[in-house]
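Narrative progress, year one. The postdoctoral researcher (J.K.) led the effort to move from monomer predictions toward full complexes, under supervision of the PI. The following entry was the first complex the group processed end to end, covering 571 residues in total.
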Amino acid sequence: MIDINANIGHWPFRQTDCNTCETLIKRMDKHGIDVSVVSNMNGIFYKDTQASNEELHKEINADQRFRDRFIPFAIINPIYAGWKRDLDICTSKMGIKGIRMYPLYHDYELTHPSCIELVKIARDKGLVVALTLRMVDSRSRSWMDINKEWDLEDVIPIIKEVPDAKYLVLNIANGIHVNDEDTELFKNSDMVFDTSGRNIYNLSELINKFGKEMFAFGTHSPILDYLTGLLRIESLRESEADEETKELLRSGNAKRILGM
Amino acid sequence: MSKTINRRKFFRNTAISTAGIIIGGNLGELSAKGYAVLDPYDLMKEVMKYRKIDTHEHVGLNGNNIEAQIDFADRLGIEKLAISKPVTQGSAKDATPEAFRKSNDIILEAMKLYPDRYIGMVYVNPLYGKESLEEIKRCMDLGMVGLKVYHQVKINSPLFYPIIEKFIDLKMIIHMHAHCGLGVGGERTKYGNIQPNASIPEDFVEAARMYPEAMFQYAHTGGGGDWEYACKTMKDYPNIFVDTSGSNNSGNMINYVLRYLGEDRMFFGTDNSYYQGVGTILASHLNEVQKKKIFFENYNNILRKSGNHVD
């Protein structure tokens, strides 16, 4: 079982649970999760995101268990000084497998030239690009948090700009019901949606619409609870998803997109 | 069974390349130490282990249909669903007696269709006091077991007093739509202004203080409001209960409700967010006894007061 959407680090507006490698791995053990793709949420809030990547690298390398079980993704802000050098260090010295971008928090558009350049470099390096539709529900956000969320269609511009990159689209809380043309765009991309978001309301129907290769288990932990994303998979009936399909959702699609 | 794969095989096949991308990864050691050989975790077995009453559900809202709803309930082992159909559109006065009678008729029809699954909650608008009391009697006579009210009138309004007193006599719970946008967006009342008559935690406190023998259910802690603020506000009022429904399955919400309100004042609910409703409780730090209480026993004890409990 692979969780493609886990975080460690601090969420500054609310206390979270199991937000360190040590506590997360205990939770993984309890619930049978073998591997987690993990980022450091501190990078959403640091102006220099590289510091968060260094923290993540240090924490993972503090323990053999962490090195074996966590796949690190770096947070890169392509409008901040030195991001290309940071990305080089992340790939050459920190072993990152992908990047996370937070344009809403870091205040740039997905079509910003530097963003497009970053995604192209990621593509060329074989890195996965993770886009998160929202971190929290803006209705219940802190007064110091941002008030914007993405719909699924909001990620389309970067996919059109760099159609041959590999993408994770995470926490799909809004706008999963895109039109036929956009559905085809997603289906024709090398992309996986995680199962954490509230718009994954009826996974069986969504598999029929997008295909069984498009979804993978994700928790969006510790912001969201640890089991709802898994429950959407495990509660599928045999008539909705056979064992082969469930294995794709539990780990197969994650392995494909991550190149495992 | 969530773990049908052979874990040793899983890691033989995959972890080499996984660890290969992590500096310092040592797969030989991994295999020898067996880090990856986890005990199986059967999530659906865990789901089905607990009897469940969904204490916040609707019929006829947002296009949800009954068959799909029962299917979700079957899928997740939800035995009973407390259903209502408030008038959610228009101004407060638009929820006329004719409109709330029509809503309740839809609930009564659903109860006939699935008498073993649906628990009916009467909906009224206290702006129409006399008609509301008449409607309560009609629906109680037809088997409903509680009240669900919306944001036409605040729970602490004098217009509500006769209705609260009626439900004290009936020994039934008053389930009130709640809003807690306080502290959001830098304006304490920002979301209160969107639903100006919606009941906020302070309104519940005032009603609970005035009527300590009444039972109030604060709706959907996971419904997009500030549940931390709500729990702290309502902590000292034991006749205020909360349901944990809503689309926001925040990671630490259940633990927080437990800390401030305790294990006896929390009900399982979905408000149409079935996976979140179940998942967030299972993922919490609640022990097994507490999970049984939240999923089923706490609300059944409320129903027991009026003789409407589930055996």
